[in-house]
Amino acid sequence: MTQSPTRRGFLAGVAATAAATGSAAAAPSDDGPPAVDPSGPGRPAALQDDGGDTGIESLLDDLVESSLEGRTASGATVAVVADGEVALTKGYGVADRESERPVDASTPFRVGSVSKPVVATALMARIRRGDIDLDEPVATYLGAGLDEAVGSATLADLVTHRAGYEMSNEGLWITDPDDLRPLPEALRRWRHARVRPPGEAPAYSNYGYAVAGGVLGAVADAPFHEAVAADLLDPVGMTASSFRQPLPESLAESHATGYGPGSVYADGEFPYLGLGPAGALSTTAEDMARFVQLHLNDGVVDGEQVLPPETVAACQRQWATAHERLPGMAFGFVESDYGDVRTLRHDGGTPSFYSHLLLVPERGLGLFIAYNGADGGAAAGDVLEGFRSELLPDPESDSDPESNSGADGGTLSSDGRPTRADDLGGTYRSLRRSWAWHDRVTTTLQAGTVEVSVADDGALVTTGGSVTRRWVEVEPLVFERVDGSERLAFDTGADGETIEYLHRGANPTTAYGRVEGADRLSLHAALTVVSLLGLLSAVFGWPAATAVGWYRSGDDAAADSRRWTDRPAALARTVAAGAAVAVLAFPVAALVHLAAAPFAVLSAPPLTFAALFALPILGLAGTLAAVGFAVRSWTDGYWGPIGRVHYALVAASLAVACWLLWYWNLLVPPL
């Protein structure tokens, strides 16, 4: 890898300062962050578009080309805006391996959840015009059938991921375009459950953004993709961008091919989103450069005032946070602190594309990057780190020295232990998971988990995966990492007393909830093992014991049909063994189905998958019968004492297995 130019070298090599953008910074108000002097110190100079190589182009060439090495992604597209001017739009690699068509700045890419700030900006334009009242429940703007699903959630709750929805795959990935539904119908058909009151805790929700998009369509009295185009894409000049599914033919033909695990999606044919506003946008680096300009130029794009400055400022101000000492959510953007510099960002991932959008409003700097591979997240991470480290101040040198007043980087409480130290310890799991849909098991296993404890010296210790970190309390229930790079905070639940949530400053979109009782995975693992042993002893143990008995006795019992109809004991074992076979066969069949059609199974299950639920239903019926036989075995004297105990254990194992299937929403078919 070529040595990256230093920030000092980059600034020294800039050709010249570009002309003023023609718009003044917004005055300080309640609608946005304080104004920033465009000529203030530390702001990177703009670049002349002279067609030649520039410092920023060299920097991005180095970073992006290196990031593509060894990746599934074969190409990337980039846009950089500095001082409100487009400094770079460029493509790297190939859009399609087979044809070796190169990526350029006009190649469309699927951007996933980077769609969300685009949707939020269009909504804010409507809000500022008075078409939408932020204090009104969004059910006010939607048709019948969504009142119960939406409840009292407001648009701000939806956009800041605080409406209380679960994070489910239901209705998300659609492989057959004939299965796509108009957005109002999709919202009613694939309703995600509300599992907590609006505003209680953040939990990332694609369904919430789909509902927000539904509000935009309802207010505009048009299909969502037409409404967002008319309200934002067309005025900004994003003519090569679209939420339409399937894509218009012109975009589909020029679209980058997506490369997912073992799959290739060409000509705009990739898994569609049943909840389109959450991530169905396809766009180009050139178009996203205009969107970035909009946000860095107070609504001005190429000299034209597309949106009022107040609208842009309202999008960029903080709308929600778990604590004033933590980053939070702007309107459609995620806040992050890089040292003392506030940044706004959003990333987006699909099965075959990845994108990232970064804005630094106070520096007039923005970056958009997209890859045509599912592993683009790691590649983009390398580029973003290099971009920030070269063009923004060193976070360590610019951090507030007052924020680290303790010996370990913070201030311990007076007795050496954190506030409410005895209440903090335990397991916390990300709320970004499903509760009511049958993907509860997959989303829970993928959800981040943090173990929290308090060390003898009073430091808070967190362990997530193989990473252990130490934190010190800087104010009650607020902690800072010993290196000062991140904060976290604890919060109470609905009762206002019990510590229920952990909030990480690095991820303000989703809190971690305390895990207790029946929700502990260790309990489920133990119950699964015990139940499995009991079921296997019935499926294999009883036939083996019967065969041995027949062999020893020489009795041709297999030919005596009355043995199975006249002896309740034999029938009891047959019922229990049959139930065990059904219960054991279901997860195997479901996993095979999932491997064959993962998107369909998780999002919009086909009838073949629903038919598999005949197995657990039969297993449940057999379990109820087995419990009855277990009771009768003692009253009627089936077998000896050991045989009766064993049968009772098998019946108990069946009951546990059915409870596990019920807990994970796998007992009855998804409806």
Automatic annotation (TrEMBL):
Domain of life: Archaea
Residues in Beta-lactamase-related domain copies: 60-376
Pfam families attached to this UniProt entry: Beta-lactamase
Region span, Disordered: 21-57, 390-424
Transmembrane region(s): 525-551, 571-595, 607-631, 643-664
InterPro entries for the chain: AmpC-like, Beta-lactam-related, Beta-lactam/transpept-like, TAT_signal, TAT_signal_bac_arc
Bias kind Low complexity: ranges: 21-42
Keywords: Membrane, Transmembrane, Transmembrane helix
Key word Thylakoid present: no
NCBIfam families, A to Z: TAT_signal_seq
Name assigned to this protein: Beta-lactamase family protein
The species this protein was found in: Halosimplex rubrum
